[in-house]
Design a protein that fits this description.
Number of helices: 2
Number of domains: 1
Structural class: alpha+beta
CATH class: Alpha Beta
CATH superfamily: Ribosome hibernation promotion factor-like
Largest sheet: 4 strands, mixed
Helix content: 25-40%
Strand order of the largest sheet: 1-2-3-4
Order of helices and strands: EHEEEH
Radius of gyration: 14 Å
Amino acid sequence: MNIQINTDKNIDGNERLQAFLEDKLTNALSRFESHLTRIELHLSDENAGKSGPDDKRCLLEARIEGHEPLSVRANGDTVETAVNDAINKIKNLLDHVMGKQNLKK
């Protein structure tokens, strides 16, 4: 499973953040790993550095071999909240799609 992390110009996508997010995604999606070819995470700050409710956005896309990409979006007050919510959404979506396709987990 290849993991790609992208940030906009308002979020510092340093190595520490990249490593943290890769580890978080790997652990959270490990049971789907044999079916996933790629995970893309896109982080953005919709208020360009100004604080505000739910101004951090996480778009998470999962690519299952032989299927169209699946994507979810979550907003939060912090990057961590947005990422956690997106991970929970993509796990639910993967459960649903893989159950429908009768793919083994």
